Amino acid sequence: MRPLPEAQRRRRRPLVGVVETAGRGTRARGDPRVAALLRAALERGSEPETRSLTHGFHAYPARMHPAIARHLVATTPADAIILDPFAGSGTVLVEAAAHGRRAIGVDANPLAVRLARLKTSRWSHGDLERLIAHARALARRASGRAAAQRGTRLPGFDPRTFAPHVFRELHFLRAEIERGPDPAIREALWLVLSAIAVKVSLRVADTSELEAPKRLAAGFVSRHFARKAEELARGLGDLARAIPEGTPGPEVIEGDARDLPLPPRARIGRVITSPPYPGIYDYVAHHALRIELLGIDARRFSEVEIGARRRSQASGALETWRNDLGRVARSLERHLEPGGLAIFLIGDGIAGGQRVRGDESLTNACSGTGLEVRAVAWQSRPSRSRLERAVHGPTKNEYLIALSARARPSGGST
Ligand SMILES: C[S@@+](CC[C@H](N)C(=O)[O-])C[C@H]1O[C@@H](n2cnc3c(N)ncnc32)[C@H](O)[C@@H]1O
Predict the structure, then answer these.
(1) Residue 125 CA, ligand 1 centroid: distance in Å
(2) Of 10-14, 66-70, 93-97, 164-168, which gets the smallest average pLDDT?
(3) Is any atom of ligand 1 closer than 6 Å to the C-beta of 28?
(4) What's the gap in Å between 117 CA and the centre of ligand 1?
(5) Is 276 in the pocket of ligand 1 (CB under 6 A)?
(6) pLDDT tens digit sequence for 365-391
(7) How far is the CA of 45 from the centre of ligand 1 (A)?
(8) pLDDT of 162 above 50
């Protein structure tokens, strides 16, 4: 084999005293034991997407692959508390519950918090039957009321978002949900409405502002709503059967990961998380339609959202992201148990129209904090959006990065 030129050799230098390995297109470097764990977890992400438990209930941009979360949860010491400071739709928390682990989730997006709470809640068989019966009856009433009002223009209608008959059905579904007698069923049905919102709208997807005219028959929205409620009930039933007896429900907190809303003495054994990548997503914009439909106040989230694409062209956007992630690392450092790992799933990002390597930016963000990189595994994945293809080309990298408390210099006082 020809030796690599010096510049390339330097770029690919492994971490001190460690090996670089490759297998099934996944490369890894760092502490061999931790690198093997990360590589095995990342490889699970090539499995076909699973809709098991409550995972497939609601779309969420940059949702973690459930099989990656499952591997990282299953390899966490049994008595360790798991924390996901960017919990999103709750993928890690669902897996933690199914494995009988104590877990805490934090997210600044109020929609994410409601979704993660619902997806990890434990329902009895009787309550799930009541949920289904209520959703079916409510959908029939909403469809009937919408049909009776055919041709009427309802307040709040925006022709750029929904076809008129779709908006009418959504309007009456909302009115029927509000009248529901049981708070838990009401909350579940609000999120069912959120789960179907983009599919019945004129938008292509959460992450696209493009419009796609859809020919939906009258009554489709209500029928789809009832079917989605049944899907949710099936997932919640599977989850209830999977959760080992005595497992405490995860705590899901609305808050800012830069200043974790945890009691000062809370001790975390493992962090499993996926932070917002720089400049790729804009959760406030992606969720605008759902936020509006559910009447959610997202002003605070809009202020504190990290890495949002809407700010990625601003000068210093990458510096801001690094500072934000540095603050998250300092906040984690206060709670991570000795020997505990903080594992981040992160992809390449974009700032000022340029490619930003996920591994380098996270490593830089953590320099000067009490956490340091123990191992990294990475894989190339297809670029999804037009913007990603323009900046990264056809593929970009996704990384699992494990950090732990920085070793203290020996001989010094502690
Ligand atoms: C990549 S997503 C996490 C997805 C999640 N792992 C899942 O499977 O659904 C990143 C999350 O960070 C959240 N976020 C952005 N800024 C935040 C902040 N300052 N504090 C806490 N969460 C934040 C977003 O709302 C989003 O849910």
Answers:
(1) 31
(2) 10-14
(3) no
(4) 14
(5) yes
(6) 999 999 999 999 999 988 888 888 998
(7) 19
(8) yes
- Residue identified by tokens 């098991």 is 52
Q: Which of 60, 86, 398 to mutate to test the pocket of ligand 1 (most atoms within 8 A of CB)?
A: 86
Note the pLDDT tens digit of each residue in 89-117. 999 999 999 999 999 999 999 999 999 99
Instruction: Say how many residues make up the chain.
Output: 414
Residue pointed to by tokens 């966490």: 76
- Residue 54 Cα to chain centre, angstroms: 13
Q: How many Å apart are CA 49 and CA 388, to the nearest integer?
A: 22
Give the ligand 1 atom nearest the CA of 275: 10
Whether residue 204 contacts residue 211, with contact meaning beta carbons closer than 8 Å, is answered with yes
Task: Go through the domains of the chain in sequence order and give each one's CATH number.
Answer: 6-110+248-286+297-405 (3.40.50.150), 125-241 (no CATH)
List b or e across 228-238, with b for residues whose CB sees 16 or more CB atoms inside 10 angstroms: bbbbbbbbbbe
Assess whether pLDDT exceeds 80 at residue 204: no
- Asked if the model's pLDDT at residue 2 lies above 60, the reply is no
Question: pLDDT: is 109 or 350 the higher one?
Answer: 109
pLDDT digits (tens, 9 = 90+) for 243-292: 999 999 999 999 999 999 999 899 999 999 999 988 888 999 999 999 99
Helix (H) or strand (E) holding 372: strand 371-382
Residues 322-328: what's their mean pLDDT?
96
Index of the ligand 1 atom closest to the CA of residue 273:
6
Evaluate: CB of 55 within 6 angstroms of ligand 1.
no
Distance between CA atoms of 400 and 248, rounded to whole angstroms?
28
Residue entry with tokens 């009427």: 152
Q: What is residue 19's predicted lDDT score, i.e. its pLDDT?
A: 54
Atom of ligand 1 nearest to the CA of 112: 27
Instruction: Indicate whether residue 109 lines ligand 1 (CB < 6 A).
Output: yes
Residue 17: pLDDT band with limits 50, 70, 90:
very low
Task: Name the residue with tokens 């050799």.
Answer: 9
What pLDDT score does 4 carry? 39
CA distance 410 to 414: 9
> Alpha-carbon distance 44 to 91, whole Å?
14
Distance 104 CA to ligand 1 centre (A): 14
Residues linked to residue 403 through DSSP beta bridges, in sequence order: 342, 373
In ligand 1, the atom with minimum distance to the C-alpha of 91 is 8
* Count of Cβ atoms closer than 10 Å to residue 353 Cβ: 11
Q: Atom of ligand 1 at shortest distance to CA of 60?
A: 9
